[in-house]
Design brief:
alpha+beta; CBS-domain; 6 helices; 6 strands; 41% helix
Length: 146
């Protein structure tokens, strides 16, 4: 059976985004309304500046006592996030997430068009198992090459 691509596995096929001057409170409201765990920070109409996730809201805002209604998303976003093409196999995307320590990958299609965000939640257990095996193999090769 052919493995799904990140675009095929996305649970939401629309882009959830805000401008860089939006507040983290607005980001939380947009994420809640869209039932998603990240929002892209974009300079209209289509330039990707960064990404803000639920984890960012917890660790960079709540845990630090920052005011959600005055803190801009540009102050807490991950700038220039790694992006993947829509045809990337899910297990390859999950390997990137495992190795780099994040849970969201913007998907960028032809012409630098933002198609959405792949979340680790979009992966099936089989695909995650394949990715873990690949990540362990990469680690063993790196250890062997020293």
């Amino acid at each position: 059976m052919t493995e799904r691509t990140v675009f095929q596995s996305m649970s939401q096929k629309h882009v959830v985004s805000l401008g860089p001057r939006a507040t983290v409170y607005e980001a939380a409201c947009v994420m809640t309304g869209a039932n998603c765990s990240s929002v892209l920070v974009m300079d209209p109409p289509d330039k990707l500046l960064g990404i803000v996730t639920e984890r960012d809201l917890m660790t960079k805002v709540l845990a630090k006592g920052r005011n959600s209604q005055t803190t801009a998303v540009s102050d807490v976003m991950t700038p220039n996030p790694q992006c993947v093409p829509p045809e990337m196999p899910v297990s390859d995307a999950v390997v990137i997430m495992i190795e780099r320590g994040f849970r969201h990958l913007p998907i960028v299609g032809p012409g630098a068009k933002i198609l959405g965000v792949f979340s680790v939640r979009d992966a099936l257990p089989r695909e995650i198992g394949n990715a873990v095996s690949l990540a362990e193999f990469h680690e063993q090769v790196n250890d062997a090459l020293g």
